[in-house]
Amino acid sequence: MVTTDLLTAARAEALFGSELPTGSAPSDAEVAAAIRRAVRRHGGTRGCAVVLAGEYGEHPETAAPRMRWALGVVRGAYPRRPKRGIPAEATDR
Prior knowledge:
The protein is mainly α. It has one domain (about 10-80). It is built from 5 helices and no strands. It is globular, with a radius of gyration of 14 Å. The N and C termini lie close together (about 10 Å).
């Protein structure tokens, strides 16, 4: 089971609300820039969450694939690091 921490979720919500096209393979720098622009455009991370919720309500058939794409892109651009004091093997569960 894959879990998503709050920062990853917030980044994915912002990327969801960005101008980048679903299915694109942006560089890490492009991802970071798109997230910053989306957060500014939507008035913060809460605004990005509102955009996400609205799209799921109005267009669930396209929102789900876009969110899967956004999560994958964010996880690739911002890999999780093991917590200090916990062996890396313990975090892979």
